[in-house]
Design brief:
By secondary structure, the protein is of the alpha/beta class. It has two domains: about 20-185, Rossmann fold (3-Layer(aba) Sandwich), CATH 3.40.50.1980; about 185-295, Rossmann fold. It has ten helices and eight strands. It has helices at about 5-20, 30-40, 65-70, 90-95, 145-160, 165-190, 205-210, 230-240, 255-265, 285-295; strands at about 25-30, 45-50, 75-80, 105-110, 195-200, 215-220, 245-250, 270. It has a four-stranded parallel beta sheet. The protein has a four-stranded parallel beta sheet with strand order 6-5-7-8. Helix 2 (about 30-40) links the parallel strand 1 and strand 2 (about 45-50).
């Protein structure tokens, strides 16, 4: 019997080990999606997040440096509902990866897992930067995390069936953990004394409606349109008349207008994160939502 050289044995072992432990490449458009993918994928996935939480999620710069990760991806997880429409398509085109093109098995649109609100009756530039499919900022409500996690797991099981049981086990563990977290979060939010707010942009509608907080107006006269003097003065009068004392601001919009309105109405400006990592101390899903509740219901 011919003896196999030690060098060849080492080579074969290395090769088979690499195959056995090769991780499934997943690209996520936003940080919160990356965290959910990692929670259900565990050690079997390698996750690359495209957008930074430090910037406006509508206007991500489609940097060429992001293309290689997409070209190698086995699956791409997107927020959907038109949020990536201005920046993801050119990256997909240049990556030229048939696995993750829009409409393929490897392209996951998580907006399909949630009930979208604020669907416009008509779409026109006269109404600002409206989203035809509905409000895409459903991630600000932690109750939408589990439906999204289930959809991602379903896709992982379909595309990487060798690890199907692991993904399903991870989902079950994450589900139990998240339900426990939601009980505490829901109790905190239901005790929140704020009942009416003004937002800069309608980022938090899902969260506010879930917990019975009315969004009375926005600092923007229309979605994506910068505040005007006329609108600002009208908003000040409305807040005085309706005794609104809270303005919700996100980290990336200008702060001068909200501060001016607050100075004229006695309102308080509260900066809420819109995604994981948007402000200090929000580097996990739990910390992201805890920060929202702590700042809003202080």
């Amino acid at each position: 019997m011919q003896k196999i050289p030690l060098r060849k044995i080492i080579f074969l072992f290395t090769m088979f080990s690499a195959i056995a432990f090769a991780r499934f490449n997943v690209v996520a458009s936003y940080p919160y999606l990356g965290k959910i993918v990692q929670a259900v994928g565990g050690d079997n996935v390698k996750v690359k997040v495209l957008a930074s939480a430090k910037f406006d999620p509508h206007f991500v710069i489609p940097k060429p440096s992001l293309i290689p990760a997409i070209s190698r991806a086995d699956m791409l997880v997107a927020n959907g509902a038109g949020l990536e429409i201005g920046w993801l398509p050119p990256l997909l085109k240049n990556a030229n990866n048939p696995k993750v093109r829009i409409g393929t098995k490897g392209f996951v649109d998580v907006s399909r897992a949630v009930h979208l609100i604020d669907i416009p009756k008509s779409v026109s530039r006269a109404y600002g930067d409206v989203h035809p499919e509905g409000n895409p900022h459903f991630n600000c409500d932690p109750n939408n995390v589990l439906p999204i996690a289930r959809l991602i797991t379903k896709k992982l099981v379909r595309l990487d069936s060798a690890h199907a049981q692991v993904y399903q086990h991870n989902l079950a563990r994450f589900t139990a953990k998240w339900k426990t977290f939601l009980r505490t979060f829901n109790a905190r939010m239901h005790s929140c004394k704020i009942k009416k707010v003004v937002q800069y942009h309608e980022l938090f509608n899902y969260l506010l409606r879930r917990y019975g907080i009315e969004s009375a107006a926005t600092v923007e006269p229309l979605p994506g349109i910068a505040p005007t003097s006329k609108h600002t003065l009208a908003l000040i009068n409305q807040m005085k008349k309706e005794h609104i004392r809270t303005i919700i601001e996100d980290p990336y919009h200008e702060k001068h207008t909200a501060k001016f309105i607050a100075s004229k109405t006695g309102a308080k400006v509260i900066v809420l994160p819109h995604d994981v990592g948007a402000v200090r101390g929000t580097d996990t899903l739990e910390k992201f939502y805890k920060t929202i509740a702590a700042r809003l219901c202080q």
